Amino acid sequence: MTEINVLVVEDEEAIREMLVMVLETAEMEVRAVADTQQALEELDKRIPDLIILDWMLPGMSGVEWARRIKKDDLFADIPIILLTARGEEEDKVRGFDVGVDDYLTKPFSPRELQARIKAILRRTGRLGKDGKLEIAGVTLDYNEHRVSVGGKSLEVSPTEYRLLEFFLTHPGKVYSRSQLLDQVWGRSTFIEERTVDVHIRRLRKILADHGLEDLVQTVRGFGYRFSEQTT
Q1: Domains along the sequence of the chain with CATH
Q2: Span 115-129, pLDDT tens digits
Q3: Which positions fall inside the OmpR/PhoB-type domain (predicted)?
C-alpha cells in the first residue's frame, strides 16, 4: 500500500506516543506535535494525507483550529479525525459543522482508529489502489470491490458488501436497525427496518461457511455489532 502520511495533534504525551506507535505499526508515516502552532509549522513543510486532531489543546482548541484551516484552500481538503473525551451529541455536531470527517470518543481501540482512517482515505481517494481492510480474517479489497476470507472470495450482494464495510470500519460498536439503514442504505431511502434483519441473516450465512458467523452479533434490545469478542 502507498505510504500514508498522518499528522497527529495531541497535547497528552502518553496518548501522542500511543498514536504514533499504532499508526507506524500500520505502516503509516507519522508526524506528531503537541499544539496547533507546531501543527501549522508541519503543514507548511508537507501537507498530510490526514490529520488526527485532539479537541482540547493548549492555546486554541482543535475545533477552532479545524475551522480556520478549512477556510484555507490549501488545506481545506485534508481529512480530519477529531479525538475527544466528549460524548454529547451537540459536541459531535459542533465538530462536523466545522468540517471534520469523523469523530472518535476516548477511549477507543487502535483497531477502530486504523479502520476509520482507511475508510476516510478510501472515501477521499487517498488510499492506494491496492488498499485493503482486514479485520477478524475478513478482507475488503476496495480496488476490486471484493470480500474474501483466507484468500477465498465471498459471494455478497452490493448491499451486503456495504453492510460488511460499515461493520468493518466500526468494529465493536452497537448500531440500531435505524442507524444501519441511515448509514448503509441512506437517509433518503425508505425501507422497513426488518430489511436489515434479512441482510444480517444472509451475511451470517455467508460467513458461516468459514466459521465466522459469530462476528455479526445481535445485541438484544439494541441492534447489531461486528466483534471478535463473544458475549
Answers
A1: 4-123 (3.40.50.2300), 132-226 (1.10.10.10)
A2: 888 888 877 656 654
A3: 130-228
